[in-house]
Amino acid sequence: MFTKMKNIDTAFRYVRGFTMLVIAGCIIISCYAVYKSFQTVSLMQDKVYILANGKALEAYASERKDNIAVEARDHVKTFHKFFFTLDPDEKVIKTNITKALYLADDSAKRIYDDLKENNFYSGIISGNISQTIQIDSVSIDIREYPYRFRCYARQNIIRTTSILKRSLLTEGALRNVSRSDNNPHGFLIERFNTIENKDLSAETRK
């Protein structure tokens, strides 16, 4: 009888020990799972997935100050492409200039008005002239605000019988404004000025 009770007591201790071990293991696993979940959520908060053309692209959250130079250069490039890309079509010219003027202040608007008053755009249309621009580089000085920039580019002026290549050097300043659909970078070009715009070469079209 005593032997039987002793065996039952021993078995109970084994079962109790095993149960406590299982419970401790479950607690450890649960704590690890919760820790990893919080860690994963924390990492995911720094990532944004954008759906473009049916593909998920990963974007990373960052402070604006980390990307000022990159965004500023792209803003300047975008403005120049819209402002200086012209085709012999009034609607195309108006569309491009409108997009460009959202990115700059009245210093660019005055240049546009002067060119329009001098029949520059009418000459583009009547002469079936196309103008393209190739940005070579954009330098941004972010040490002082507003940020000064210089843009180095080349123009191709394509006429019916010839192609004229010109150099283009412009400068200006960038100040911060609210982001919008028309101005996604949140910059506005001020004191825009053309420093140099001279002929480089001309070739006859065949």
Briefly, what is this?
InterPro entries: Conjug_transposon_TraK. The chain has 206 residues and is of the alpha+beta class.
Descriptive overview:
This protein is of the alpha+beta class. It has 5 helices and 7 strands; from the N terminus they run αββααααβββββ. It has helices at 2-44, 68-84, 90-101, 106-117, 120-126; strands at 47-52, 55-60, 130-141, 147-158, 162-176, 187-196, 199-204. The strands form 2 sheets. Strands 3, 4, 5, 6 and 7 form a 5-stranded antiparallel beta sheet that branches. A two-stranded antiparallel ribbon has the order 1-2. A hairpin with a 5-residue loop joins strand 3 (130-141) and strand 4 (147-158). Helix 2 runs antiparallel to helix 3. The radius of gyration is 33 Å and the shape is elongated. It starts with a helix and ends with a strand.
